[in-house]
Amino acid sequence: MTEKELEEIGDKIVGVLKTIYDPEIPVDIYELGLIYDVFVSEENNAKILMTLTSPNCPVAESLPLDIEEKVKSLKEVNACEVEITFDPTWTSEMMSEEAKLELGML
């Protein structure tokens, strides 16, 4: 795989992430700033490093599985692993301008 092909797969993964919404906030998880990084290996395996709005998030168990399933539905992706981290801790400053506008914070 070329670097460009891997980048295109990464862009498709981001497209999928933008269809997944936080259940408590009407903004997708990507614009919300919950996705810290998306990696795609030469073997077309994806790894997503993300956080949650809080360690007590009600979807802490189900959201990573939902993300893995949706990303694996891309024909270019063989496998997907979601790793949750709380370092750095999520703050509203991590939200995109679009998300802040949507929530009336601008």
UniProtKB/TrEMBL annotation:
Residues 11-84 form the MIP18 family-like domain. InterPro entries: Fe-S_Maturation_MIP18, FSCA_dom_sf, MIP18-like. It holds the Pfam family FeS_assembly_P. This is MIP18 family-like domain-containing protein. It comes from Polaribacter irgensii 23-P.
